[in-house]
Amino acid sequence: MRRTRPFPEPRPFPWPSPSPLPLPGPPKGPLPEPLPLPLPPLPKKLVLCVVVEVPLVPLFEL
Question: Which end of the chain has fewer CB atoms surrounding its CB within 10 Å, N or C?
Fold first, then answer.
């Protein structure tokens, strides 16, 4: 068996400092294409997929 050195003390992971980056959200300014108001009834599966794909972190930071 080879003799191995004892592992060094685990250094604390250098977490990146919180930088003032803008949160991903709706783009500020005029919308490229205004959505028509009378939306057709969407199937529930499609709505669920859209809701799941939205990042939840910005909602909790409000």
Answer: N
